[in-house]
Amino acid sequence: MSDSMLTPAPTPTRHIQGPSIGRVTRSETVKLRTIRSHIVLLTTAALFLLVLGPVQALGQVIAPQGAQPITDLGAATSVALNGGVTAALLLGVLGVLSVTSEFPTALVRTTFWAVPRRGLVVRGKAVAFSGLVLPLVLVGAAVALEVSRVILGRIGSPLTWAEPGTWWAAVAMSLYAVGWGLLGQALGWILRSAVGAAFALLGLMFVLPMLVSLLPGPAADAVLPLLASEVGSAMMRVDQTGPGLAPPVAALVWVGWIAAGLALATVTVRRQDA
Amino acid sequence: MIEIEHLTKRFGSTLAVDDISFTVRPGLVTGFLGPNGAGKSTTMRMILGLDRPTGGTARVDGRSFVDLPSPVRAVGAMLDAGQVHPRRTAQAHLTAIAETIGEGRVRVHQVLDLVGLTDQARRRVGAFSLGMRQRLGIAAALIGDPGIIVLDEPMNGLDPDGIIWVRSLLRRLADEGRTVFVSSHLMGEMAQTADHLVVVGRGRLVADVPTQRLLGGQACVVRVRGPEPARLARVLTDAGATVEPAGDSALHVSDLEPAQIARLTLDHRLEVHELVTERRSLEDAFLELTHDATDYRADHTTERTVTR
Prior knowledge:
The complex is a heterodimer of chains A (274) and B (308).
Chain A (H helix, E strand, L loop, with lengths): L20 H13 L2 H27 L10 H8 L3 H17 L6 H8 L3 H35 L11 H28 L2 H20 L3 H7 L4 H9 L10 H25 L3
Chain B lengths: L1 E10 L2 E11 L4 E5 L6 H8 L7 E6 L10 H4 E4 L11 H10 L5 H10 L15 H13 L5 E5 L7 H16 L3 E6 L2 H7 L2 E6 L2 E7 H6 L4 E5 L3 H10 L3 E4 L4 E5 L3 H10 L6 E5 L3 H9 L18
Parallel strand pairs in B: 3-7, 3-8, 5-6, 6-7
Antiparallel strand pairs in B: 1-2, 1-4, 8-9, 10-12, 10-13, 11-12
Helix pairs in contact in B: 3-4, 4-5
């Protein structure tokens, strides 16, 4: 116990400045990094991304008769990034937890005391999550592609860094995985419960497309391609042709989904008592 | 300075806070007193912009909390010592708060040192005792070196050493000219801590007075006990005292000084087993004040007779 008088905070010159997006982001990054289960989830997601693709590539080489032949670049990248969907699911859960873990302990009150402008907290958490996860997933996807390229080279696959599609695959996969995390955060803010938000996320990923496809033909055809799950897959397509939106358009709609989710989250947290 | 004007909060059909107005001034420790469920925490949450008032305003430094340029530097707050992720270390928790005002490790270590948690900095908060959590909460409140400090039940769960420590810290903060606003449901605790008391019951303001006035408003009473209460009562009444039975052959005597009572009993050769001055405690004053304002209470009017 100290007998010293309360020492003034060392940088009084910065007194006037309140919490900025940069400061809130740093604060939220500290929060993300300092809980072990977050790190475990992040590491597991990275491992899935790194290992699953190359393992499947190895399978192609060792037992080609049991696997679908790799005829084009798209097939090759989807083998290499095979672990991406699982990683995205885990990152979605990480996104959920990064928000909902503040509610049972009412830590969120401490958060909103320090940063009363709640929209700033929503944005700060999103930027912190992206800043931590995006580089990791990008590197993970690139390594998975490179290792798979080396492995698949033995059976003469078309996977090569000379194709822009390979780069696109890595970037789109990263956007996809981080995007699910951010949608998880949005659902966490809206529903405040880890279980509720995780189920809602799974619903958005898997159940909603099934329900929509039950709609009468034209309605389903119109709505289905715009769902987050479908937009996400369309974005990751390497070839420009195929069903659904073209990959660059899909990427824009995907960003729109995330922006809409976070905007809805902001409106919700502003209205509720903490 | 905290200014509360006609503050009201309704949850469904319940009025948690009912048209409360008061001012918390700098340089004093102001106790916010009331039974559990009286609306203390709700009022504090509204001061901090966490709950939106149904009516009225709560202002800090002349503006609403949400409009403060740097809230953590203006108002230090601890609402509940549990508002910490149990798996985070004390240091990480404080760092996350410090980062929002551009402070770092230096400041975190200063406040950890201030509350005596330096040795526990790298332990997970989940393993902390309630007392240690209170200290951590106070450390968090002090990170921004704020001019206003709002603490909800900071002495809850503290051992006697801890209570004395909090008390002297609050005193020091007030002496430095800060505004200190501390809630408690324990009146005795506040009697020794606060200079000024704001008492609420059932969401309504019951009293807003200096502690001394609440305590000293009544003349003191002398409790006298002996084997012959009837004769004792007669003698004392003849001498001009007001006497009330206090159970167990004891009497509560007012309007006479203890020395006069002792002289009278000696003159009349009355045996006395007990002769004590009883100050009206804050507890009594509090019970009296919140008597009508409490939701549920045991009927203990016969248990203790407070002379008035």
